[in-house]
Amino acid sequence: MALQLDHTIVPAFDKVKSAEFIARIFGLTYDGPYGHFAPVKINDKLTLDFDDLREGEAKPRSNHYAFLATDQEFDEILGRIKGEGVVYGSGPGTRTDGKINYKHQGRGFYFECENGHVWEVITHTYIASSLTN
Q: Taking the model in full, what pTM does it have?
């Protein structure tokens, strides 16, 4: 078996609200809490476990989450982003320009959630192309 990421903790102001938002944007379901987490199953190998801030924490530390999507998934996710009026952009420094990028033989865009995390959706990974260049 190859090593794979099983789950990761996503700090949130409101774990349920955040889990519902990401599930809705990515076209997934949120089935309610599991223990003290609000998990969103991304696929059969990865779960995002949203968790409320710990006592004394003022805000979550911003993290970056990047997802590789098919062209159809990309179009659907971007459609939901636009439908909800979520600000998005073409790059990490241009997350509000309302554009997508066409890098690495694919398409991509970025958006933020209320917790300050940066979410990226791409149709082609840069890893394979950068290893050959």
A: 0.91
